Fold this sequence. Notes:
The structure holds three protein chains of three kinds. Chain B is of the alpha+beta class. Helix content of chain B is 37%, strand content 23%. Chain B folds into four domains: 10-108, Rossmann fold (3-Layer(aba) Sandwich); 138-205, 2-Layer Sandwich (Dna Ligase, domain 1), CATH 3.30.1490; 211-452, D-amino Acid Aminotransferase, Chain A, domain 1 (2-Layer Sandwich), CATH 3.30.470.20; 459-495, no CATH class. In chain B, the strands form six sheets. In chain B, strands 14-13-10-11-12-15-22-20 form an eight-stranded antiparallel beta sheet, with helices on both faces. In chain B, helix 5 packs antiparallel against helix 6 (112-119) and helix 13 (400-413) runs antiparallel to helix 14 (423-431). Chain C is α/β, with parallel strands linked by helices. Chain C has two domains: 44-265, Alpha-Beta Complex (2-enoyl-CoA Hydratase, Chain A, domain 1), CATH 3.90.226; 286-444 and 489-520, 2-enoyl-CoA Hydratase, Chain A, domain 1 (Alpha-Beta Complex), CATH 3.90.226.10.
Amino acid sequence: MRYTFKIGDELVKVAPRSLADELVLTIGDKDCQVEFEHGKDDRCHLTLDGKSYESWVARDGDDIYLKMSGSYFKVTAIDPCAAAAGASAGAGSISAPMPGVVVEVLVAEGDRVVEGDKLLTIESMKLQSTVRAACDGVVGHIHVSAGSEFNKDDVLVEIESDS
Amino acid sequence: MSAVRSFKKVLVANRGEIAMRILRTLKDLGLPSAVLYHRQEIESPALKFADEAYEVFGDTPVSAYLDIPQIVGLCKTHGVDAVHPGYGFLAENAGFVRALDEAGVCFIGPRPEVMNLMGDKIGSRDFVAERGFPIAPSVIDDGDEDKLIAAIVEIGFPVLIKASAGGGGKGMQIVREATGLRDIVATAKVEAQRYFGDPRVYAERYIESPRHIEVQVLGDEHGNCVHLWERECSIQRRFQKVIEETPSPALSPELRRDICESAVGIAKATNYTGAGTIEFIFSPNGEYYFLEMNTRIQVEHPITEMVTGVDLVAEQVRVAMGEPLSFKQEDIKQVGHAIECRICAEIPDDDFAPAAGNVLVLRPPVGEGMRFDSGSYEGQKVGTAFDSMIAKLIVHAEDRDAAIARAGEALDQFVLLGVETNADYLGRLLRHPAFKAGETNTGFIKEHAADLGPSLASDDLQAAVVATAALSDRQFVAMMDEVPYPYRLMKEWRN
Amino acid sequence: MRRIQSRVNINSPEYQENLKANEARLGEFHRRQNAARHERPQRDLDRLARQGKMLPRERLEMLLDPGTPFLELSTLAAGEHYDGDSPSASCITGIGIVAGREVLIHANDSTVKGGAWYPMTIKKIVRAMDIAIENHLPVIHLCDSAGGFLPLQSELFGDKYFAGRIFRNQAILSKMGCKQLSLVFGHCTAGGAYVPALSDYNVIVRGTGAVFLGGPPLVKAATGEEVTVEELGGADMHTSVSGTCDYPADTEEQAIAIGREIVAQWSKKKKWDAQQQAPEAPYYDPKELYGIIPANIKTQFDMMEVIARVVDGSRFHEYQPAYGKTLICGFAHIWGYKVGVIGNNGILFNDSSKKAAHFIQLCNQNKTPLVFLQNITGYMVGREYEREGITKDGAKMIMVQAGSEVPKFTIMTNGSYGAGNYGMCGRAFDSRFLFSWPNSEISVMGGEQAAKTLATIKTTQLEREGKTLSEEERAKIYSDVTDDFEHQSSAYYTSSLIWDDGIIDPADTRNALGMAIATAMNAPIEDPRYGVLRV
């Protein structure tokens, strides 16, 4: 699998072609012979097809910041799995994960919420837990109020998703 | 020493680069120092640099620095007897000065009355005009349309017409000739009525492609007042200065003397004490008009320090102690040329949108004639809580060309990684032929936007950047490192 | 170790003649291989594009670590069967590197009849999974198959090595601790549904991926229930309700990325600590093999010249250089791995058979893998040799070879006839990998000899039925029989039957063996023990 890096608005795929004695990388659609050295103090030395490039490099998560040839660049490594991590948890309506009782309703109909916002506190099996928004959107109908009892899979709150 | 007062402990009621700047002088003067900090800035170097540091609390970090009772309380608790406000926050807040007065704490800056007078846009204009200093010709509609038209014609064209009740923006227009003026005024009045419920209009001489030129002044309690020459701050974006320089390439020696003397005159008229700046708008034909006065130390004060050799903060402290100025006007020479570049966490190519991130690598430029004022540090989280300015890069050289070249070298040397900044953009500004030729005005950035865009990296350079990034990316490197022998030697063999 | 001194003269007419013949053979080989891999009816390619699916080989390339090799197995399987309707037996199998780990990959080829399993498909998959079992390899299944090819169900369903064996092998692999991952790109119906279900991990693509025992039409027929593909076995149902699948993915690319991340979680087992040194390319150019392999299969050639173009640095330590000279034995390195090489340089005699038996024991004692280079017309026949015990000596060789604990690798370089095939570790003798060169032939006896025998039987039979045959008819029978026999002994035919793990370009032999040996080192090598030797 080739890795994708974002530079400006451009997506560039990069992959090693040779890991043998000489390192060859395919950058976009070009094969480049590469030598690379991570020096001291965040300085790097790169030789690409015989040309030398000195740079300063720092990494912050997926973002790689560079200063090379007098200019700054921000390159972002695209995680090919990222978008799949969150399953499309039935955006729209949020149903009860188990039978229980509503302790508190934390939002009102019409409230704007972002994914992860707290919607309700519920209690089941002597354990209180928080029901959170699964997507960004606006709170639609709230089917329960404090003290309501509900069964597994009962719809508790509806969220009108942005997407 | 002829100090009236002596300070036992001086609090810098500020943060960031200006806190560091002031603390440095306090150290030089041998004065015990203290600084404020918000929880977010616990790792700021100012905390270590000051003798003491006091935490301030607030709903937002900014509100903490604006909390007068809290700050005055800290002064009392810790025996602070003088406060330097820096710029921004409470630097021009007369209420703060009075609260300090009541607590018996000296405010290092002008008296509150002067602050109030000069802090008021209209009031200060009238004050300046009454004393015979130039302000842009203008007229306010008193209902008599014929009189208004005549007055506008007298102001001369181009002229800016707007609703007197409104601010900028709506209903504002520039008129370039007398033909059709009556219709335009009539329309403007209708619009003014519609938008602001007041049909009166206001007209002012419109200066095209003006420069922003300001003069640094210093006054003491003994009636002395001097200027420390001008600064040109025409390179602006969104009304914020980006590059400042001194001397201004636009001024002849005569004009320079003239504008500086006007500034001293204005300051003297207010009995100004401490450091202040008189800002002028300077037209291409050599006219200049009073714009406003800033009653504080300015962000761009270091370029004045570079060409005059005067430590402005030290002078502020001495004046606050009641000392007379240690020099006369004729002692202050303008030597060489200085330029300041403001390094901000922003994305110039995205309409200067603020950028956030973590300062991962910070390497100040080091060399002759280079100065780097910053409160930043590696590990700093740069968010939108405070101003986007991270650092100031100041250079000094024998003349303007040399200073521009030195600024370029300093930018080259300077490294800040982890937050997007305008550093590249500053380089493009400095290299722009119009800037090099001294052809600047406050519209420079808009006018030359097309040439100031990001220079496309060559394919080779882009490949080098991507290669370096990939080979610095943990996942990518791990993928390569994980490939076992002998497979890594077989390359992409397929049978 | 000394470098072999090659005696090949690349300017000789003989070399040039061979070169010409072999270049023609290679052209034909590459043409067939390319067709099997890539040539598909446009409508099948269009259908995949419409479904938003990648081609099986695109999936494969995306799955592999870039910059690493892939050893494809049995590309020409089923090539001579089903009128060519099942190119490559409708699936891809091979060994590659994913997230730095050696894995066996099995991919359904949905460009052929929706990836339906032909009998040969099953044979190829079962063989691939046997390779995983023998070499302790994890397996990645790229699932996109319509299930068994119904018109041929009697040839693929009930027998020991038929479809059930795939699932049996999955279970055995799991029991052995060899991880399995399924990436479900398309439908996995009926038996096919067990491939992801029997995997330790699986990822399913939303919209196109589905897993069920019976698809909607079958359900409707069986119970009258009307149900959509998504409800019945779609990604969200299986990953959130049934737990049959583990990870949903929005796209095939994402499924592959998740799959790679899963493989990265697997422990890297320590390999067998084989005798190894830094690899060294052969001193002699492997492409010179094209001038060495004879144009005519009956022409003898020096196997030492082949060894010089396969082993590291062309360096070879020959064992018993003066004894039993029709069989070369000795030590060499391939991609750094120490191996024992056994190559034919003529008929197997008593001395060469005994030499082989002895050398195989030495290698087992030393835990050195064995490489067999076959070019064998058989064991010597005749009174003198029987009196000397040629059958007994051949049996010794077969006994220790079959009883070997070290991994064995076989290359069919030219001819492989009769019992020579057995002694030199033919398919029946469990070589971990067996590859054929395009020129090679396998048959129970030499081609001409066999054809003559068969033709004689046929003419005698016809004459017995009262037919009188003209000289032309005799010649026709003879040539028909010869053609059939030649065809059936050709590498294309035997590889179509999966008697090997694929035909390889002779110049690729070192790489193929290198990957095979490195792979084999995932399984431990047991201490030697043998059956009873007739001494």
